[in-house]
Fold this protein.
Amino acid sequence: MESTPPSHQEPYAPPPPAPLTPSEERTWAMLAHLSILLNLVTGLLGLVGALAIYLIYQNRSRYVAYHALQSLVFQLIVWLGGGALTGIAWTITGILSAVLIGLLCVPIALIITVIPLAGVVYGIIGGIECSQGRDFKYVMVGDWVRGTLTG
């Protein structure tokens, strides 16, 4: 009896994930933008939602990857940056109120407080635009993200 040489088989590799349908792309892009609503309830979970959508779908859909990354960067700027700026403005206003000068700062602090809330409205608009199949980009953030993704 002759022995046959062992066959060299390629290691098993799972098939690549299927690309998303246009309907699925619109849904996930919309959810990436609407993840900013989670920040209203949890503080920072909207960032995690946008990041998770980006990481899961970055190889399956450039459209979803673009909108998820755009939403993540926008939330970092508006929610974290705007929130920090709001805290600083109110702290300065509170300290200066002891000498009555801070009362003049109250209108400025109120305007700064609106930044994160305006970001939520802008995120909702982005979600609606994506759900209707239109491309959406945040002012300044969208072009930067597109340039980052295209190299």
Summary: The chain has six helices and no strands.
